[in-house]
Request: fold
Amino acid sequence: MLLLNYAMNPTHSIFGHQFEIVNNISDSFESVTVITTEYIGDKLPENVKVYLAPWKSNSKILSVVKFYRTLILVLFKKRYDLVFSHMVDTQAFMAVPLLKIQKIPHIFFNGNTSFDSIPIQNRYNWGTSYIEPYNKAGTYTSVLQNNGHQTVAPDSYHFGKEAHSFWANYVLQYIVRNQLI
Reply:
């Protein structure tokens, strides 16, 4: 599996959970390769390899070039059965053309909002790649809240470890149910 995420840093105040998610899913795959914007070198399971593609908001063109360089390098080194994008919408959409060419299934999702306001006739059919893009109830936040998980603080979009573990299992079930691997 190839996973695109924002940070492999367990101490990151917003994205620290992504480190734990990689650890959790590594048991379900022979190998996991991660392309991330931040990695502090913490110990990971032996079947996890991390590639760094820093993303700087004040240097978008250079960030795009670095991401594509890293993605192309990773795709040429190994054939992946699946790509999962976790909270990196820009990189997820950038990866779509290369993954389509290589016929690699790619899964991504909406965090807090959906595109349900887009008229039906203007909606793109993502197949099983995009988890319920036009359904508010299919967003990460809605799925977690509808299954009893609450944010860590009022007026926050951030959930605790148990919610992230639930989401990882939810996505794994989606992968199996849709026969993506």
User: Anything to note?
Assistant: The mean pLDDT is 90. The first helix runs from residue 17 to 26. The radius of gyration is 16 Å. Helices lie at 17-26, 60-77, 89-101, 140-146, 161-177.
